[in-house]
Amino acid sequence: MLKSKSIQTTSRAYTNALHRILEARHHDPFSFLGLHAIKVDEHQLYAYRAFLPYATSAKLKVGKSWVDLEKTHQDGLFEYISEVELTIPCLLQVTAGTQTYETHDPYTFSSSITQDELYLFGEGRLKLAYKTLGAQCITQNNIAGVRFAVWAPNAERVSVIGSFNQWDGRIHSMRTHGSSGVWDIFIPNLTTSDTYKFEIRNRHTGNILVKTDPYGFEFEPRPGTATKISTSNHQWEDKKWLEARKKRDWLHAPFNCYEVHLGSWQRNDKGHFLTYRELAKTLVPHVVAMGYTHVELLPISEHPLNESWGYQTTGYFGVTNRFGSPDDLRFLIDAFHQANVGVILDWVPGHFPKDDWALARFDGTALYEHEDPRLGEHQDWGTYIFNYGRNEVRNFLISNAYFWLQEFHIDGLRVDAVASMLYLDYSRNPGEWLPNKFGGRENLDVIDFLKQLNIMVGEDFAGVLTIAEESTAWPMVSRPVYLGGLGFSMKWNMGWMNDTLSYIENDPVHRRYYHDKLTFGQLYAYSENFVLPFSHDEVVHGKKSLLDKMPGDAWQKFANLRLLATYQMTTPGKKLNFMGNEFGQGREWNVNSSLDWHLLNDNNAGSKWHKGIQQLHTDLNRIYKEVNALHTLDFESHGFEWIDCHDTEQSIISYVRRGLDNSFVIIVLNFTPVLRNEYRIGVPQAGSYSEIFNSDADCYGGSNQGNGAGLHTENIPWMHYGQSVVITLPPLAGIVLKIQ
């Protein structure tokens, strides 16, 4: 062996590079460490260098033999000079104290990231960016390990620090890919028990930042914030569901969604969270028994604070470990699919928190957010706003949507707070926002982003839905992009929800003065593909539970709640209800405790009322799915017609719902506690009618007033129809009639 020190160059370049390595400031450590050809006195030699600050000695495998490396710097630089070219990747035997281990040198592996990937990422078109960036468990040169990659364009140096290198940023400095801003390194011999972060040195200030992986798949338990190496071994069993989803005519199919916060739906006897696998045994049967077609999960990406409900996301690609591993979540979703229930994910691309270990000022600059707080900060939530005009940021979000749909078989994305994204002046006073290039308040970058998102979903995931929570009159939210719309499948009807709840909270004696709140919605009901939501937002922060919103004594409260559910389920539009609504939860939702399931126990004095609400929802859900007229024309005006919307004095409305098969049902709703005998309504067809649903039935806790035997029409013109029928209309109740 040639002595390294005897031929070591004393050039300024070598000395400078060495100092930068020792100080963890080198932007390109691969140019110094690893194996390099050098010229000495016209001889071609090969210099191998390894920086091992905790090693007491090290050997290098040369051919079939081990040779000692020479420690050329006391801080841990080891070198070897060879007259023959060495085989790469180089295998080391390292002794640190009393431990000796073998490992391949990361600096003798080439990069496995392609130029195509970097180009597409820079263009904002790398849909599978989560397979390029982050921590990828791969095999390189027949050696298993993990390739780490991160986007940090304003870094002077980026290192992987973790449980495998004593969290020392000097050991695994990454290579840079030039102007792409991407850094990577392949580290062999890591396992899924290892955790890591990125240590970033800003090239302008020299400040050191320690960050979790933006593309991390799994994180250590709170309060820790490190990312875990993660792989999946789940074997999906939902092929039949996915094939059927591709062919599903969702426009004309029933969509009845149960909105769930997994951490507070139910807890065990000790008050602890149920795991994803436990929920597969409890939540799935409940949803099936109740007759819902879909569940919507409040955000399940990693977040530090329970009270944010998951909306303050710090790990966009990370499944929250509160309830188990990513594969445990896959198991739950698989169970839903095998039970023929779709899974919607509440997705939050509108903002991210300011936690200094996450996305905020990621490389020491406003990387994912805007620098100017008039564009980059959300005043309502104290969070940052994504810079949607930056290709790499848009790519991050598009790839994240792709990730959930591809890797977790999610059936739809409910996009949170779309209105806050669309308007530059959202919740801002004059002077607190910047107009777009045309002087307007519309966020043009967001419009392009949402269109790109919806086009991607439509092209790559047939049958998957996108649903906008958009609270303004922004036009064509749920219309195709090629027609000038944003491209969403559906939009929450916040106007209907607000009008309906403000109406029904009034004492019945005053409702006649607010009758237009029941009828106004039909003026715009078909301008979008609407979902009618009674969501989590309506039962928290002092708004009271749905039951507690109802006026009157206990009987009237439950009767009003049954009437409200009947109105929602028979009105045009798809349906959504938050957990607890289905059995009349009495108190507001509390994110830190289970729902009040004890209300359904026989030893509870009011269990009959709550069981009645639960049975009512079960029957309404079944009828909604079975009766063609109640769902096939939810989005088309010819699926609805008023019988009478003018009975203000008695607070009664009646209407016809029609189906694609020309079938129809009649709905009559009485919003007063007065029993209406001999109430005549016009009907579109002569014949005998039967009452197929009555919210006042005894089994629901009602007074059991209604129409027993068949109802026969009379040849008496009424309410613009040539035929009419006389019915009994129960108090605070709704009935559904069908021709026999």
UniProtKB/TrEMBL annotation:
Pathway, according to UniProt? Glycan biosynthesis; glycogen biosynthesis
Q: Which residues form the Glycosyl hydrolase family 13 catalytic domain?
A: 259-631
Report the GO terms under cellular component: cytosol
* Top-level taxonomic group: Bacteria
According to the UniProt entry, the coiled-coil residues are: none
Give the GO terms filed under biological process for this record.
glycogen biosynthetic process
Q: What is its EC number?
A: 2.4.1.18
Q: What does the record give as the reaction this protein catalyses? A: Transfers a segment of a (1->4)-alpha-D-glucan chain to a primary hydroxy group in a similar glucan chain
Specify one Pfam family. Alpha-amylase
According to the record's subunit comment, the protein's assembly and interactions are: Monomer.
Q: Which family does it belong to?
A: Belongs to the glycosyl hydrolase 13 family. GlgB subfamily.
Q: What exactly does this protein do? A: Catalyzes the formation of the alpha-1,6-glucosidic linkages in glycogen by scission of a 1,4-alpha-linked oligosaccharide from growing alpha-1,4-glucan chains and the subsequent attachment of the oligosaccharide to the alpha-1,6 position.
Q: Which NCBIfam families match?
A: branching_enzym (TIGR01515), PRK05402.1 (NF003811), PRK12313.1 (NF008967)
This chain's protein is named: 1,4-alpha-glucan branching enzyme GlgB
The opening ranks of the lineage are:
Bacteria, Pseudomonadati, Pseudomonadota, Betaproteobacteria, Nitrosomonadales
Which gene is the coding source of this polypeptide chain? glgB
